[in-house]
Amino acid sequence: MKRATVPTSDAISYAGYRFPPDVIGYAVWLYCRFPLNLRMVEKLLARGIELTYETVRRWSVRFGLGIARRIRSSALARGDTWHLDEVVVSLNGRKHWLWRAVDQHGAVLDGLVQRRRDKRAARRLMRKLLRKHDRAPRVTDKLGSYAAANQETGLNLEHRQHKGLNNRAENSHQPTRVREKVMRRFKSARPLQRFASIHAQVANLFMPCRYHSNTQQKRAVRTRAFAALERVTCAPMPGRFAA
């Protein structure tokens, strides 16, 4: 299947920044790809790169969502089965829910932070997914709100409710839990939504080879992922990291 091209008109500009694009792109990639806090990224940058963790935070806010959008626009078409699930997250002592959709291959389709776990919240997630993925998929989740939202919107999607079918979506919450621990909990809905949107697309880009892949195949997948990252960030990755 042919991969979509990234629109050149939507290119990321680093004009006005003191550091070169490869340093900015690499710092944002580290923060979005791995369970690292801002101070860890500051310490992991190469010798001679003197900056503060606050600079890394500003870079991730400024460029993260743009990189995620470009990864999404250049990605292959996703699968026709959506595994939906929600996980509770405490934000300043108030309960919120992170709703997430994953296809049958493990690629995260989207995530949405909401205050409720009901039919209305399920409807918002499903409509958001359908706007971005123009197809009528099979939906799997045991929560009754999805079935109610399906009927109310008249989408008539095939909905399967079985506990064992939803392991992929449940496993997709693990990076959120790890990052939550590293950051000592998210403070508000906006940083959580931004993290969920950016991390999902970067993780999709570097999704590991499945099943019986040898070392050469895994290395080829990694090389293609870094090449794609350079295209979407409009910045070369440092040579010692791209190999």
Automatic annotation (TrEMBL):
Signal peptide: none annotated. Keywords: DNA recombination, DNA-binding, Transposition. Residues 80-206 form the DDE domain. InterPro entries: DDE_dom (IPR032874), IS_Transposase (IPR052183), Transpos_IS6 (IPR047930). It comes from the Bacteria. One of its GO terms (biological process) is DNA recombination. Pfam families: DDE_Tnp_IS240 (PF13610). The keyword Protease does not apply. The keyword S-adenosyl-L-methionine does not apply. One of its GO terms (molecular function) is DNA binding. PANTHER family: BLL1675 PROTEIN. This is Putative transposase.
